Amino acid sequence: MKKIISINLIIFAAVSPTLVSATDQAIEKCIQAIKKEHQGEFVKLEALEVKGKSVYEFETRDVNGFEYEFMCDATGKIIERETESASADSRAFKNHAKITEEDAIKIALESYPGRVEELEYELESDGAPSYEIDIVGNNGVETKVEIDAVTGKIIEVSTEKWEIGIEGDESLY
Questions:
Q1: Backbone angles phi, psi at 59, to 5 degrees
Q2: pLDDT digits (tens, 9 = 90+) for 79-131
């Protein structure tokens, strides 16, 4: 993964060497912080904008196949941790969720019209279940909408700037 990140950052270097240097340093700090907390393979990296701020979302997979997400800010500090559930039927997700997948998609599309590209079932660091729905709008921009699986409220929205990697088992629509 680091090799792929470095190659892509070289491409960006022609556009803005200062930005690439800061981006490369933040990504490297994130990688080191994640490695201290969690052993696993890096499978995907996304650059996002959340409330006007740049963040990076790293997805990892451990030797048992469990997937984790770490969100880092532009300084390389981990600001959010989540565990992915394989499906809405997994015990940890199902035992607490009150909103169906269909309802979560409907809620997300009412606020952010487009085509659903991906759906993930997540457990927040406190164990609360949420749906992360990736929607590609008519303008081609991908928006991630996180829906609280208990209340149905939108708890986080981000816009994707770029993505490297893909999970083999992503729930694509």
A1: -115, 135
A2: 999 999 989 999 999 999 999 999 999 999 999 999 999 999 999 999 999 99
Assigned token pair, 18: 């200062």
CB 132 within 8 A of CB 149: no
Q: Please choose, from the candidates 84, 82, 77, the residue with its C-alpha nearest in 3D space to the C-alpha of residue 33.
A: 77
pTM, rounded to two decimals: 0.83
- CA Rg value for the chain: 16
Q: For residue 105, report the phi and psi dihedrals to the nearest 5 degrees.
A: -65, -45
Q: Given the structure tokens 């829906």, which residue do they identify?
A: 147
DSSP string, 8-70: HHHHHHTT-HHHHHHHHHHHHHHHHHHHHH---EEEEEEEEEETTEEEEEEEEE-TTS-EEEE
Long-range contacts, 31-34 (Cβ 8 Å, 24+): 31/2, 31/58, 32/76, 33/70, 33/72, 33/76, 33/77, 33/78, 34/58, 34/60, 34/70, 34/72, 34/78
